Amino acid sequence: MKLIIIGLVVVIMLAGGSFSVLKWMEVGPFAPVDENLDEEPAVSTAPPIFIDLDPLLVNVFQGDTVATTVQVSVKLETLGSDNAALVNENLPKITDTFLRDLHSFLPRIMKNNESRLDVFVIKKRLKLMSDRLYPDKRINDVLIQSVSEGS
Fold first, then answer.
1. In angstroms, rounded to a whole number, what is the distance separating the alpha carbons of residues 67 and 18?
2. Domain span including residue 59
3. Do residues 122 and 56 touch, judged by C-beta distance below 8 A?
4. Phi and psi for 94 in degrees, rounded to 5?
5. Same domain, 141 and 76
6. pLDDT in tens, 65-91
7. CATH number at residue 129
8. Residue 42, domain member (yes or no)
9. pLDDT tens digit string along 35-64?
10. Model's pTM, two decimal places?
11. Is 43 a member of any domain?
């Protein structure tokens, strides 16, 4: 009986000691909470700058022939002149990224002959690609001016 009580006291002392060490080192449940995580990111007061891209021409193949050609006119929205300068400097890289993705993405959404191109889906896809290219949000938004499907 004495051994059980001594063992119980030792376990309680070890638990108390470990909790005090965690609190002293601010680890685990006692880690300080960062208040900056709850706040929204600061919104830039600079007016948006719009940058035109050359029209993106995407050939959609069906078998060995070109089924249709899709032309997408795109504008990029950036905030601040530094971001605009960086985007203007990297326009060939951005255009190449968009074209590569659209060459693989458009045939998947146009599998059926009756399927129509959804501008909203294309916009979201291009925004996703711009976020992958610039994870630090250099490109604020991708605006689709027009989508035309030719034969």
1. 69
2. 48-150
3. no
4. -65, -45
5. yes
6. 888 888 999 999 998 888 889 999 999
7. 3.30.479.30
8. no
9. 655 555 555 677 889 999 999 998 888 778
10. 0.67
11. no
